[in-house]
UniProtKB/TrEMBL annotation:
Location of the Alanine racemase C-terminal domain: 226-347
Protein name: Alanine racemase
InterPro entries (UniProt xref): Ala_racemase, Ala_racemase/Decarboxylase_C, Ala_racemase_C, Ala_racemase_N, Ala_racemase_pyridoxalP-BS, PLP-binding_barrel
Listed cofactors: pyridoxal 5'-phosphate
One of the Pfam families matching this protein, by short name: Ala_racemase_N
Enzyme class, spelled out: isomerase
Molecular-function GO terms, alphabetical: alanine racemase activity
UniProt keyword list: Isomerase, Pyridoxal phosphate
The species this protein was found in: Sarcina ventriculi (Clostridium ventriculi)
């Protein structure tokens, strides 16, 4: 094992799936594994989810080719192109999200599709007032195309009132196909977690789980975080009082101390956050607060460990004074940000 790795708790993933299934009731579960399974490793995670979900969903054709599963694989909008339709795997389901692509659909091979409906995101999708015509055109002129799903994307779930209205727009055009088209879905992680949005989508037959499967959200619902980063120092060195440490000499030792070298840095997400901007006044107070109170991301047995200076590209220096040379340090990082080649250890 290397000196820096990510441990992924597969039991926690199963726990989260069980909670999701209780929330969505009798709906089918689509397990989203785009973005290298949200940074947790698409190969292992796809195999683990294979018998726990009804469909796996990827972001593009390249991701689908990285996995070897018998479960159906849905290529999500907006990165499904006409070139993708040349792939002849039987378990591949394509997205139709624009009318132009219909003109170029293959005529002599069977293809399974979900139609993506634009209900307000305006990123891609068949317009609501065109859905019936598109379905009729596919049935009449493309008998080799099997419509297995209708779906849309709820893009403002924090605004529950707006989202409930958006679900209503989707319901008006999609509900009448219930029983004829097996997979009708609009709920994703945020929608699954909200009672009002979930209730509005009671007509749907499936839901997509991404963030909540892996523990990025939903802790108030019992969802568990599934990943933890760890590091063991690669090297340690002694530094005398008054000496400077690291690039730019940003830290000066106030006493004799031990400096530890960790094999992780900016490329792994150290010093980078996924914070959302609010407004200038809020952000100003946030900066002021952090200038007074440090935010620790490295811990030894629950106790914070000081970063010396700033993390570099692939190295972070820490205060190792009083710590064991081989201490296993916990690091607060997100797989979505961290470099995907970090070694992953899967635990059951």
């Amino acid at each position: 094992m290397s000196n820096f790795w990510c441990e992924i708790d597969l039991n926690a993933i199963e726990h989260n799936i069980n909670i999701i299934k209780k929330l969505i009731g009798d709906k089918k579960l689509i397990g989203v594994i785009k973005g290298d399974a949200y940074g947790l490793g698409i190969n292992t995670i796809s195999k683990y989810l294979e018998d726990k979900v009804d469909i796996l969903a990827v972001g593009n054709i390249e991701e689908s080719r990285q996995i070897d599963v018998k479960t159906d694989i849905l290529l999500l909008s907006p990165l499904c192109t006409i070139e993708d339709f040349k792939d002849d795997r039987e378990n591949l389901i394509f997205s139709i999200d624009n009318e132009e692509i219909i003109k170029e659909l293959p005529q002599n091979t069977k293809k399974r599709v979900h139609i993506y409906v634009d209900t307000g995101m305006n990123r891609m999708g068949i317009k609501i007032n065109r859905l019936d015509s598109v379905i009729q055109e596919l049935k009449s002129n493309h008998p080799n195309i099997e419509i297995e799903g209708l779906y849309t994307h709820l893009h403002k779930c924090k605004d529950v009132r707006y989202t409930v209205s958006q679900v209503g727009r989707f319901k008006k055009v999609a509900e009448k196909y219930k029983g004829e088209i097996p997979f009708i879905h609009c709920l994703a992680s945020s929608g699954i977690l909200d009672n009002d949005i979930r209730k509005a989508a009671d007509f749907t037959t499936a839901a997509r789980g991404g963030n909540i499967i892996y523990g990025y959200a939903g802790y108030n619902r019992g969802i568990k975080k599934t990943f933890t980063y760890y590091a063991v120092p690669v090297n340690v060195c002694k530094v005398a009082k008054g000496e400077q440490v690291g690039y730019g000499g940003l830290f000066t030792a106030k006493s004799d101390m031990t400096v530890g070298v960790l094999a992780c840095g900016n490329v792994h997400g150290m010093g980078i956050t996924r914070e959302t901007k609010n407004n200038p006044i809020y952000d100003m107070f946030k900066i002021l607060y952090r200038s007074i109170k440090k935010r620790y991301v490295i811990f030894n047995g629950g106790r914070p460990v000081e970063i010396l200076g700033k993390p570099n590209m692939n190295v972070t220096l820490i205060n190792m004074t009083g710590l064991d040379k081989y201490a296993k340090l916990k690091i607060d990082l997100s797989p979505v940000i961290s470099e995907s080649s970090v070694e992953k250890v899967y635990i059951e």
